[in-house]
Every structure is written in structure tokens, then in C-alpha cells.
Amino acid sequence: MSSLPLVFSAPKRGKPPRHFADLDAAGRVEAVTELGLPKFRANQLAKQYYGRLNADVDEMTDLPAAVREEVGAALFPELMSPIRHVSCDDDSTRKTLWRLHDGTLLESVLMRYPERNTLCISSQAGCGMACPFCATGQGGLDRNLSTAEIVDQVRSAARALRDGEVGEPGRLSNIVFMGMGEPLANYKRVVDAVRKITAPEPEGLGISARSVTVSTVGLAPAIRRLADEGIPVTLAVSLHTPDDELRNTLVPVNNRWTVQEVLDAARYYADTTGRRVSIEYALIRDVNDQPWRADLLGKKLRQALGSMVHVNLIPLNPTPGSQWDASPKDVEREFVRRVQAQGVSCTVRDTRGQEIAAACGQLAAEEN
């Protein structure tokens, strides 16, 4: 486990400062001309930030030294500073706790696999969805993240991988919006961030849209809206149970959009994008792991989505003091078997980082 010095300062709640990563191409040109710089500097800065992964103007050696301080203050303010890095799984998993400009806390997790490098990022500081088994949901919502606060999590991880800070040098290949927050509750900024993450360099970070997953607890209208954006990201729906009675408790937003309404929206997403939908299901001992729920889940998914669905069964990562616990392995295996027997693809997700409080929200809760 590695540690960074703690930085304590009085929180300055409010809107995050404008950052280069908040701006589109026209906005970048406007910003540099406001500073009295020629328009070509906008593209130069984009190559530095998105191409070379530099956010420190002192590293931008093609920028005149006389203007670096002014450009840094105007376009590259420090959005977040690392409080702590914790690693496990032979250093193949690293979680970072960040402190934002106003003192709020944020988490991201970098996971290295033989065939890919995946970053789990946050879209909000905290979460307002109030799912009782989730560490972030227990803490409530602090605020939405800005576009730049989302994008810079990705840039920072891509740079750390490139520079060999997390094992052998490598390339960031996959992004999952499965960290703190409900991505579709911060819709505009998340979509803007996705466009910047997936746009080719130097307009963005150049990560394939098909390698980006956006998760949601089931905001049905926003799922349909996302389908119409024309960005072929993977949609992951955190369902956790196939019946409304239990889901009203486990995922309180179900009181607004039922299981069937969520699955209908997921079908629209699959039909519109041609992408298979992922169903996330945290298996909780004696709560949602009964054989009849596995049968019902498989039946409903087959009827709603046919072959355009895959179930990711997630062994619950219990949080300290929680009443919830993971299901036994034999129960887990039987659940998978029953879902598959309904003709629905189902696998158990590889769990990472339990010994470093990798469930999103745990490090932030400890720090608070």
C-alpha cells in the first residue's frame, strides 16, 4: 500500500473552475483568443492534454514560457489532488482517493488484466439513489462532477499506465462508469465526457466507444435518450432483482420506473444501438439469491431482450457494519445455472480489491 501526504483545507463549495477539458473545439479557440494568443494554440494545447496526457503547463514546452502561468491559471487549474493510492492483487488493482477543489472526495479504480486495462470512474461525488447495500448510496449525494472532473480521471490513469506507475507500462483500454454516482443523473456532463473520452486525438483521448460502459440503476427516460445520442457505448443496468416488490427496497428509484419499464427502455437501447445490454446483479445472501428469482430473471430478460443481453453476477463486496453479505458459492453457481437454463448468457464477475475497500464510497467514508 502506498500513501500520499494528506492535504487539509477548508472546503470551498461551489462550481468547479473552468478547465480545458470542459471546452469543445470552438470553446478552446475562444478561450485562447481571450488570452491574446493565436488560434493555433488551441490545437497545440489539445495535443498536449489529450495526446501527451499533460495537464501541467510547465511540461508544455512548445508553449512560450512567458504565457504558461497565465494559460495554466485560465485553462488548467488543479481539479483534484490525490489523497491516497492503495493497491492489491499483486499491484494489478489500484484505487485512488481524490480531493476536489472544494474539498469533496472522489474515487477511481484502475484494474489491470492480461488482455486489457480498465478504469472505473465516478460521475458524481456521492450518490442520491440511496441503494441500501451500496457504500456510496449510504453517504448521499454531494454534487455532480463537471465534464473535466470526469475526463481528468481518465487522463490521469492513462498517464499513470503509460509511465509505468502501475506495473509495466501499458495503455488504458476500457472505461466503466461504475464508480461513485448515478451517471444518467448527471446526464449532460457524462455524455459530454464520453464524447471527449472517445473522440480521436487530439479532440479527445481516443478510447473506443465500444470499450466504454455507462451504468445506471434504471432511469428509463435517460436510457432512451442515451440510445439516441449515436454513441455505441455499452449500457449496464443495475437490476439486482427481477421483481418490483424487492427492487422497490433495494433500488428505490424502482418506485418511479418499474422493472418492466427499465427493461423496455433497455430493449429500445439494444434495438437503436445494436449493442448487447449488460445486466448487473449483486448477489446478496438470503435477499435476492433464491432459485425462483434466478428463474424469473432469466424469463423476463429472455422475453424483453432475447439474445441482446448478458448478466454479470456480482459477489457482494460487503461494507463495514453492513447487514448485507455475499451469497455462498454453491448458491451462486445454482443461480448462474438457472439463468443460463432460460437461454440467457450469465457469468460471475471477477472480483477485485476487497482488501482495499474497493467498493465505491468506502475510502471516502473512511476519510470523512
From TrEMBL:
Binds 1 [4Fe-4S] cluster. The cluster is coordinated with 3 cysteines and an exchangeable S-adenosyl-L-methionine. It is found in: Cytoplasm. It catalyses: adenosine(37) in tRNA + 2 reduced [2Fe-2S]-[ferredoxin] + 2 S-adenosyl-L-methionine = 2-methyladenosine(37) in tRNA + 5'-deoxyadenosine + L-methionine + 2 oxidized [2Fe-2S]-[ferredoxin] + S-adenosyl-L-homocysteine; adenosine(2503) in 23S rRNA + 2 reduced [2Fe-2S]-[ferredoxin] + 2 S-adenosyl-L-methionine = 2-methyladenosine(2503) in 23S rRNA + 5'-deoxyadenosine + L-methionine + 2 oxidized [2Fe-2S]-[ferredoxin] + S-adenosyl-L-homocysteine. The active site is at E107, C360. InterPro entries: Aldolase_TIM, Elp3/MiaA/NifB-like_rSAM, Methyltransferase_A, RNA_MTrfase_RlmN, rRNA_lsu_MTrfase_RlmN/Cfr, rSAM, rSAM_sf. One of its GO terms (cellular component) is cytoplasm. SUPFAM superfamilies: Radical SAM enzymes. Keywords: 4Fe-4S, Cytoplasm, Disulfide bond, Iron, Iron-sulfur, Metal-binding, Methyltransferase, rRNA processing, S-adenosyl-L-methionine, Transferase, tRNA processing. Its EC number is 2.1.1.192. SMART domains: Elp3. GO terms for molecular function: 4 iron, 4 sulfur cluster binding; metal ion binding; rRNA (adenine(2503)-C2-)-methyltransferase activity; rRNA binding; tRNA (adenine(37)-C2)-methyltransferase activity; tRNA binding. [4Fe-4S] cluster binds at C127, C131, C134. Residues 113-349 form the Radical SAM core domain. S-adenosyl-L-methionine binds at G181, E182, S215, S238, L239, H240, N317. GO terms for biological process: rRNA base methylation; tRNA methylation. Its cofactor is [4Fe-4S] cluster. It comes from the Bacteria. PANTHER family: 23S RRNA METHYLTRANSFERASE, RADICAL SAM CORE DOMAIN-CONTAINING PROTEIN. Specifically methylates position 2 of adenine 2503 in 23S rRNA and position 2 of adenine 37 in tRNAs. Reaction proceeds by a ping-pong mechanism involving intermediate methylation of a conserved cysteine residue. Belongs to the radical SAM superfamily. RlmN family. This is Probable dual-specificity RNA methyltransferase RlmN. It comes from Gordonia hirsuta DSM 44140 = NBRC 16056. The gene is rlmN.
